[in-house]
Structures are given as C-alpha cells and as structure tokens.
Amino acid sequence: MEERLQQQINFILETDKLKNVIRRNFLSDDSRRENTAEHSWHSILLAQIFFEYAENKSELDLLHIIKMITVHDLVEIYAGDTFIFDETGYEDKFERENAAAKKLFSLLPGNQAEEYYALWLEFEREETPDAIYACSIDKIMPVMLNTYSKGTSWREANITSEQVFRTLKVLEKGPTTVWNLLHQLVKISEKKQNLM
C-alpha cells in the first residue's frame, strides 16, 4: 500500500478511539454520558444549523469552521476530556492537549499534519472570527444538553449560574443569538434547579 494512504488509514483508525472518551455531560434523555465523538458530531451539526445567526457571515468560512470543530477534540484521545468547570484541570490543559495534538497529527502525511495542527491551534486561541464562532458553538452545546436534561453533570459539580457566565464569556464575542440563548438557557436551568 502507498505510504501516504497507509498513514491516513492509521490516523483514521487511531481517531476511532475518540468514541471511548467519555465526557461529563449526559445525553438529553439522561440515559448515559456522551462520548467526545458524539459531542463533536453534534457540534458540527449545530454549527451548520446556527450559521444563519452569525452577523459577520462575510468574514466566516463555514467549511473551515467545520474542520476546526472536527479536529479540536481529537486530542482528547491522549489528553482526556477536561470538564470546562475544572479550574485545576485547566491549569495544564493547553500543554497536555498541545502534546497530544503533535503526537496524533504526526500520524498523518506532513502537509495534512501541519493543516490539522494549525486548525487545532486556531480553535484554541479563540482569536479569528472562524474560531470565535466555532468555540461559541462548541461551548453552547453542553449548556443545551444540561438545560434540557436533568442537568446531572452540573448538579454533580454544584455548578452555579455565575460559573456558567464566567466560564463561557467567549460566547459574548460570538453570534448575539448564541449569547442571548445562553442567558435563556441559564434561566430555564435555574427554574429546573439544574444550576445551584
């Protein structure tokens, strides 16, 4: 088999491990915790559905956004999932995930390895319009699941409304509709007592 093709197959087989990375969030029906592959797929779908709400569409590249969302959580294969409200876990999150990104993407042919690492890094920096939109979508998804389920992952960690707003401040830079949605979801979660 051609070396390039074999490298790509090896990468795809390695990324299958993302299905085994279990997150804190439960599915909306509360039947079980979601895995990271499911979260990535759901976020990709939401990015497309909510794209109509982006005020700066002329500055955005939806395919680029989808690529970022597709690759950014792959690092969890080696680094694990860090709960967004885990302040201690966030202290070395970038370093752990950066090492994981370099290791994982090195399985790909050189040009693809560089592209995927650049996509991952752009997402993590949250500076470009595409990255801000992608991060907004990625971060609102767990809020939606916690709001429309029993909020078990929030209840387990005693998460407060103030923590949600402080931790998800990046959403303020994204689509206004998503920022407003966060406020609406928090109100619903408070009424359901999913937030402390």
UniProtKB/TrEMBL annotation:
Keywords in UniProt for this one? Hydrolase, Metal-binding
- InterPro entries attached here? HD_domain, YfbR/HDDC2
Q: Name one GO molecular function term.
A: metal ion binding
Record has Metal-binding as a keyword? yes
The cellular component terms of Gene Ontology attached to this UniProt record, alphabetical and capped at eight, are:
cytoplasm
Give every HD domain span. Answer: 16-172
Pfam assignment, any one: HD_3
| Regions annotated as coiled coil | none
Write the protein's name. Putative HD superfamily hydrolase
Q: What is the lineage of its organism?
A: Bacteria, Pseudomonadati, Bacteroidota, Bacteroidia, Bacteroidales
